[in-house]
Amino acid sequence: PQQRIAKADLNLPEDAVVAIYVGRMSGEKSLDRLLRLFTYVADEYAPLYLVLVGDGPELESLCSLAAALNLTNRVRFTGGARYDRIPAYLNMADFFVSTSVSEVHPLTFIEAAAAGLPALPPASEVVAVLAADLPAIEAGTVDALLASIGDAEGAVAVDATGRPQPLLAAYRTAALRRALASIGELHGRPMRRLLE
After folding, report:
1. How far apart are alpha carbons 64 and 71 in whole angstroms?
2. From CA 182, how far away is CA 163, in angstroms rounded?
3. Which class for 186: exposed (0-12), middle (13-18), buried (19 or more C-beta within 10 A)?
4. What pLDDT is attached to residue 110?
5. What is the chain's Cα-based Rg?
6. Which end of the chain has fewer CB atoms at under 10 Å, N or C?
């Protein structure tokens, strides 16, 4: 049975809106940038909290930075977590965040999508969505999707029967943001329905 993590387990209020990051606490992840950006949002939106799951060489300095930015009551650092606990953390959250600009296909975005969380990287022009259970995924799939976008808002793979596969696609980030904003409540909705 899947383990559950409640907001109370992290000393969060039950009505907290939780942004979550899962990954290594290291310089290339730009988590110092995430904390600095979070100060602006936290000032404007009281129910918002940030949970950072992971360990790494920058963990101690990130904790110090959070304290220096007066965020200790709004940010939770869990430290390292076993891989089988990651889905429980993601299911507790409302959306996934990342400020890393060095990764091309981060696994954490796929995991967040699988948990039904909206997850958009801030600095990417294009977001690739790849459902790992689709048989059409091959080594060149992402390159083919990116090449197919052209001036369009996205490119969606088509299966052998001619049906579009929105979980095997590449979307311009701006178009995806507009589409997600028009949907309303996202948490708990199937990813396939969000992208159709």
Report:
1. 10
2. 24
3. middle
4. 63
5. 17
6. N
User: Under a CB-based contact definition with an 8 Å cutoff, are residues 51 and 81 in contact?
Assistant: no
170 with 92: CB under 8 angstroms? no
Weakest-pLDDT range from 25-34, 93-102, 172-181, 185-194? 185-194
Interval 170-194: pLDDT, tens: 778 777 777 766 666 655 555 555 5
Query: What would the two tokens of residue 165 be?
Result: 């596969």
Contact of 2 with 88, CB cutoff 8 Å: yes
List beta partners, residue 171.
Answer: 127, 154
Residue with tokens 């990287």: 121
Task: Give the separation between CA 111 and CA 29, rounded to whole angstroms.
Answer: 17
Task: Report how far apart, in Å, the C-alpha atoms of 44 and of each of 36, 85, 121 are.
Answer: 14, 31, 21
Let me know the angle formed at the C-alpha of 96 by 42 and 155, rounded to the nearest 5 degrees.
Answer: 130
Task: Using DSSP bridges, classify how beta strands 126-130 and 75-79 pair: parallel, antiparallel or unpaired.
Answer: unpaired
